[in-house]
Design brief:
Elements (H helix, E strand, L loop, with lengths): L7 E2 L5 E4 L6 H17 L5 E5 L4 E4 L16 E3 L6 E4 L3 E7 L9 H17 L6 E3 L2 E7 L13 E12 L2 E9 L19 E2 L11 H15 L2
Helix pairs in contact: 2-3
């Protein structure tokens, strides 16, 4: 399923693609790899792909076998992206970013920070304060509505995961933001190898946000971070 027909093109020439149906993981990876090769060859523009997957787990390059606690629950895929285990499924917006990091400064750490900033700016559209933490990739929210932890700290839950791969300085894989997934599906793994914090979603936070709402916010905030 090559990415041929964009739903929109922004001012910087980045194509936006939206898949309404659940996209099988293997098909998504094949489509990304095809697009990355075409971007690197100069025959296709950069692209952002918004989609949802059927329930599945992916293992990043740092994944530990012990963190897959229920290996028979959903299909498991080797993702070859950075990071550890993560879950994808309905109600979670997956944002695959096929951008030319070479022409954007050739700074991978800066690029990951930009992805984090993009998520934080998007969450701010719904008055949600997303934060980053040293040693923990992804975006987190504090939960003052929950009891303090055993150490007296406010609990923190993860709302977005980030994991990318580069080929010829073109990025692929990307971001997942929890809108209204089944949070129970995360219990089959140790998400991103972190046991002391939980997972949340926009709806779990009490916000009646739809996938369409999130997509509008992603489009609106992209240009604030990526010029």
């Amino acid at each position: 399923m090559p990415l041929n027909t964009p739903t929109a093109i922004d001012q910087s020439g980045v194509e936006w693609h939206l898949s309404a149906d659940l996209v099988p993981y293997s098909e998504a990876v094949a489509a990304m790899e095809d697009r990355v090769e075409r971007i690197a060859a100069g025959t296709a523009p950069e692209a952002i792909w918004l989609l949802e997957h059927p329930p599945l787990y992916t293992a990043g390059t740092s994944a530990k076998p012990a963190d897959l606690t229920d290996p028979d629950r959903f299909p498991v895929f080797e993702a070859k992206r950075g990071g550890q285990y993560t879950y994808h499924g309905p109600g979670q917006r997956v944002v695959y970013v096929m951008l030319d990091v070479g022409k954007r400064g050739r700074d991978v750490r800066c690029f990951v920070r930009q992805l984090e900033q993009w998520v934080i700016a998007t969450l701010a559209e719904f008055n949600v304060t997303g934060e980053i933490r040293a040693g923990r990739v992804g975006v987190w929210v504090t939960r003052p509505d929950k009891p303090l932890t055993a150490t007296g700290q406010q609990p923190e839950d993860k709302i977005a995961a980030i994991g990318i791969r580069l080929r010829k300085w073109i990025s692929f894989h990307g971001i997942s933001i929890n809108v209204e997934p089944d949070l129970g599906h995360f219990t089959g793994i140790v998400p991103c190898g972190i046991t002391e914090h939980g997972v949340t979603s926009l709806v779990d936070l009490g916000l009646p946000v739809t996938m369409d709402d999130l997509d509008v916010a992603l489009r609106r905030t992209f240009s604030q971070v990526f010029n």
